[in-house]
């Protein structure tokens, strides 16, 4: 299910070249930093893969929160579950 959110922006912010995208990127970054969003959730919010999101963070100098060992372990667990499902079909 997708949810549409409407936000009113001050005129000076609305004059930016792509204010909606800027707001969405800020939401994803801050959500990820705070732990409210996982790497996967933040990357999906921006329409990126997890690795693209990692590059997105690094390009903005946000490396402390980039894809880490816990993310890798979670991905490996998910992959193992998917492989098991495909074998039982």
Beta strands, count: 0
Categorize the overall geometry.
elongated
Task: Report mean pLDDT, rounded to a whole number.
Answer: 87
Percent helix? 55-70%
Structural class: mainly alpha
Largest sheet: none
| Helix-strand sequence | HHHHH
| β-strand amount | under 5%
Intertermini distance: 27 Å
Query: What ranges have pLDDT less than 50 throughout 5 or more consecutive residues?
Result: none
Radius of gyration: 16 Å
What's the number of helices? 5
Descriptive report:
The chain is mostly helical and 89 residues long. The chain contains five helices and no strands. Helix 2 runs antiparallel to helix 3 and helix 3 packs across helix 4. The model has no long low-confidence stretch (mean pLDDT 87).
Keywords:
single chain; 89 residues; mainly alpha; 5 helices; 63% helix
Structure summary:
The chain has 89 residues and is mainly α. 63% of the residues lie in helices and 0% in strands. The longest helix has 19 residues, at 69-87.
